[in-house]
Write a structure and sequence with these properties.
Structural class: mainly alpha
Largest sheet: none
Number of strands: 0
Number of helices: 18
Strand content: under 5%
Oligomer: single chain
Order of helices and strands: HHHHHHHHHHHHHHHHHH
Helix content: over 70%
Shape: globular
Distance between the termini: 13 Å
Length: about 425
Amino acid sequence: MSPASTGASTIVGADASVPTPDARVSPGGPGYRRMSFALFLAGVATFALLYSTQALLPLISGEFGVAASDASWTVAAATGGLALFVLPMSALSERFGRRAVMTASLAVAVTLGLLVPFAPSLGVLIALRALQGAALAGLPASATAYLAEEVSPKALVTAIGLFVAGNSVGGMSGRVVTGWVAQEWGWRIAVGVIGVIAVACAVAFRLLLPAPKHFRAGSLRPGVLARTVRAHLSDPLLCRLYAIGALFMTVFGGVYTVIGYRLTEAPFSLPQGIIGSIFLVYLVGTVSASTAGRLVGRLGRRGALYAAGGTTTAGLLLSLAGSLPLVLAGLVLITAGFFAGHAVASSAVSKTATHGRAQASALYQSAYYIGSSAGSTVGAIAFHAGGWAGTVGVGLLAVLGVVTITLFGTRAARLHRRGLATAA
């Protein structure tokens, strides 16, 4: 029985063109810092643009006279567009190169980001956000595939963790900046400022990112792509990792879409600038993502996922309190748990699939952002129906799914080890 059929780690279709580990970049080696910083900036731009409206939803609701569930589509449309286009964009990266696709994606996304502030209606705003998400689809899967090809296997979790850390910094800075700018000049100026910041990140990214040394162009033939996708979707381990990424993001998307509405209401009644500053807790995500490699080294992949799920659960429960310090503590735990779980799951995908890496990463990213769209929409609906407790309930169900899937994987691996021992 193969490892893939039991839930143990497996390598999907090893590719002879993949370089030997000692040919790849390692921490301290030439180009590693430059590469890491370039992709860190790409992560900053991606999350700053993708979630640029999330902290501003109460203001958008007010201007257009719509409910939270309607305004939340400015977030869900962007993440949904990314989820739909990440697989086609990953196929383009297999043919034209990771760096080329990432550069083109950022160029289109930042251009759209400069148009978003001029949206005359909610419908146009949602459409522009959907296009922006589709443009950004070339970043996540291409970035993780680039790192898997250029970085030594032992350093891969850390390298991807730094890219994820860039996501957290982008998400944090985007929300903090938009909160304070919007308080003075409105949400349109706020998202325009984010667009300008993203332009600067995109230019620096292109100047800093080293040319790939180990990329081998693949085919754009639909049949080849379909076979690669089928191979990944037939691997139980990869499918579990995809589901885990989606469920973690369901929690995160729901919490951070709704938290602005909760904090504007009694008993908190906070101004927009202070609400934006709440997102400074993303710094915790920067730390937890960048240290995910050490966590896996100590606890193993499944142990790290259990720890991430437990931390997220504790944060959700703590956020139910009516005290602002306790709510903030809950957000800290939710953020730490989410980013650790995401870094562990996404790096496991890259290590598992050495054939069609961009497609494997694209499927993970698609599931991940479907989770974000679902969390944003369902979390807002739950908030409208049952207040913050409803949003927390959605999050707890998602974490329960993470734990259940991880338990299933642990049991499958144990049975596989017993089968090997019996055969021996």
